[in-house]
């Protein structure tokens, strides 16, 4: 039942965008002008394309995020039963967290968290 | 307290007496879809009006007051206007990704919206991994924003999208950590059970100081996640015109606007679900008379009221703190919120295991 409701909500989201676009396509005006298709800038044509190499700093944070996001996925099932596991569960997960925090400390030490 | 599942049961029985099973199911699904769409649009309209009014009062202005009484129809007029605006075709963009991006943004907010418990028995999706599911679907929004910025082939949108991507994925960690604290404390991820566990006392009260810290971390990270307040540098209008949606026009732009306000509602709704008890009324220990009076207030009012309070706080942030720089923003997350979140998670585990909570 939940899965079919998920599909219903999914279709609702798609339908919202598609219906609004269809209505706008019917009633919105259209006019054609060569200048209109240019990229939005301060009035002068854009210099070159925007699909280019970009600052690597963002990439570093994305890599760090990946590490912690996978950790979150692993921690959620543990979090549900932590009350039953008791102290043993805490000790077991501490090793996992320790390795993870070491990773963060290493990145910090290496200067990956600095914005240069 | 009124149970809305009575109404849905009644509709279900009514449809099944006149129609075969598949027909009844089909009509129910259509009803659910229409109800969600209406609620989605209504909340967005109310929020846009509310935000404009509140911002105006913070700045000693009057805000919209011409269209309808107290300017109530201003956002309706705006929505009609945005529908009849022209959709401009940009020449050098990636057409497929450019048109796909609004679908992803709306879809992620719609799926998270469907998981919220609006009242007793008034909820669409109730997975047993509820909170985790909400976190998973709301992170699809980042993808839509990155695609929008990249496919527009414009420098403003590229910088805006990159900033937004870095910001949203970073702050998602803090959201995850504070959600983990609540899951540890409640021992369940299902939204209905989370609310049921808070009937006798909201987690922010029963969970001592660690839960309060988790709530504050959640509020900061949630503000960043919605690209608002002091964290609005993906669309800093003084530097980037409009950020990642600069090239979008008409209703295309409207989708981003809609999703942004709905994300504000969803973040506040989750805050009230996780920390403030969802639709559970305020109960204080064994004050029986007080608790009985509180039970008379409908559950829907409790949920929307708490959500409105959290939304007001997030709007308040916007007019209190100056905008952060990108390096300050990432430092705040990685050097302060993530370590604090980890220590706080361990504290919550300790008070859970040793039963130190109320």
Description of the molecule:
The complex is a heterodimer of chains A (116) and B (358). Chain A has 116 residues and is an all-alpha fold. Chain A has a domain at 57-116. In chain A, 67% of the residues lie in helices and 0% in strands. Chain A is built from four helices and no strands. In chain A, helix 2 (57-80) runs antiparallel to helix 4. Chain A is flat. By secondary structure, chain B is mainly alpha-helical. Helix content of chain B is 70%, strand content 0%. Chain B has 15 helices and no strands. Chain B has helices at residues 5-18, 21-58, 74-83, 95-114, 130-138, 140-151, 155-186, 191-197, 203-206, 208-225, 237-240, 250-274, 288-296, 299-320, 326-353. In chain B, helix 4 runs antiparallel to helix 6, helix 4 packs parallel to helix 12 (250-274) and helix 10 (208-225) runs antiparallel to helix 15 (326-353). The longest helix of chain B is centred in the first third of the chain and has 38 residues, at 21-58. Chain B starts with a helix and ends in a 5-residue tail after the last helix. At the A-B interface, helix 1, helix 2 and helix 4 of A face helix 2, helix 4, helix 7, helix 12 and helix 15 of B.
Topology:
The complex is a heterodimer of chains A (116) and B (358).
Chain A: H1 2-27, H2 57-80, H3 82-85, H4 87-110
Chain B: H1 5-18, H2 21-58, H3 74-83, H4 95-114, H5 130-138, H6 140-151, H7 155-186, H8 191-197, H9 203-206, H10 208-225, H11 237-240, H12 250-274, H13 288-296, H14 299-320, H15 326-353
Helix pairs in contact in B: 1-2, 2-3, 2-12, 2-14, 4-5, 4-6, 4-12, 6-7, 7-10, 7-15, 10-12, 10-15, 12-14
Which descriptors apply to this entry?
A: 116 residues; mainly alpha; flat; B: mainly alpha; 2 domains; 0% strand
Helix- and strand-based class of chain A? mainly alpha
What percentage of amino acids of chain B are in beta strands? under 5%
Helix content of chain B: over 70%
Structural class of chain B: mainly alpha
Q: Which residues of chain B form runs of ≥5 with pLDDT under 50?
A: none
């Amino acid at each position: 039942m939940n899965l079919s409701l998920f599909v219903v909500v999914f279709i609702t989201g798609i339908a919202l965008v598609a219906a609004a676009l269809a209505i706008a396509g019917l009633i919105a005006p259209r006019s054609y002008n060569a200048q209109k298709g240019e990229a939005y800038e301060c009035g002068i044509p854009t210099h070159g394309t925007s699909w280019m190499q970009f600052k690597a700093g963002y990439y570093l944070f994305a890599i760090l995020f990946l590490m912690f996001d996978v950790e979150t996925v692993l921690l959620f099932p543990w979090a549900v039963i932590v009350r039953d596991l008791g102290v043993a569960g805490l000790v077991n997960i501490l090793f996992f967290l320790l390795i993870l925090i070491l990773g963060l400390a290493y990145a910090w030490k290496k200067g990956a968290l600095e914005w240069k | 307290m009124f149970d809305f599942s009575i109404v849905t049961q009644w509709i279900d029985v009514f449809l099944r007496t006149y129609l075969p099973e598949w027909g009844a199911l089909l009509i129910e699904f259509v009803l659910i879809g229409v109800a969600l769409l209406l609620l989605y649009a209504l909340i967005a309209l109310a929020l846009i009006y509310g935000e404009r009014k509140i911002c105006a009062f913070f700045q000693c202005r009057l805000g919209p007051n011409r269209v309808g009484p107290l300017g109530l129809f201003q956002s309706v007029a705006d929505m009609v206007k945005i529908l009849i605006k022209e959709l401009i075709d940009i020449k050098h963009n990636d057409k497929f990704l450019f048109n796909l991006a609004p679908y992803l943004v709306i879809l992620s907010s719609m799926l998270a919206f469907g998981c919220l418990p609006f009242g007793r028995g008034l909820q669409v999706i109730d997975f047993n991994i509820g909170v985790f599911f909400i976190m998973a679907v709301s992170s699809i929004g980042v993808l839509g924003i990155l695609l929008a910025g990249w496919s527009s082939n414009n420098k403003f949108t590229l910088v805006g999208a990159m900033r937004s991507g870095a910001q949203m994925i970073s702050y998602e960690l803090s959201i995850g950590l504070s959600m983990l604290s609540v899951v540890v404390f409640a021992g369940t991820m299902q939204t209905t059970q989370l609310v049921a566990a808070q009937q006798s006392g909201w987690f922010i009260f029963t969970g001592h100081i660690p839960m309060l810290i988790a709530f504050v971390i959640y509020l900061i990270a949630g503000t960043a996640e919605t690209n608002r307040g002091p964290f609005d540098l993906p669309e800093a209008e003084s530097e980037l015109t409009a950020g990642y949606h600069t090239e979008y026009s008409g209703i295309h732009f409207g989708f981003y606007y809609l999703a942004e306000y709905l994300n504000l509602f969803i973040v506040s709704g989750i805050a009230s679900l996780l920390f403030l008890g969802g639709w559970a009324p305020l109960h204080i220990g064994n004050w029986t008379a007080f608790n009985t009076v509180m039970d008379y207030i409908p559950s829907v009012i409790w949920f929307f009221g708490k959500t409105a309070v959290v939304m007001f706080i997030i709007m308040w942030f916007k007019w209190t703190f100056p905008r952060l720089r990108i390096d300050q923003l990432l430092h705040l997350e990685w050097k302060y919120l993530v370590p604090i979140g980890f220590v706080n998670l361990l504290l919550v585990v300790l008070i859970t295991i040793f039963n130190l909570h109320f």
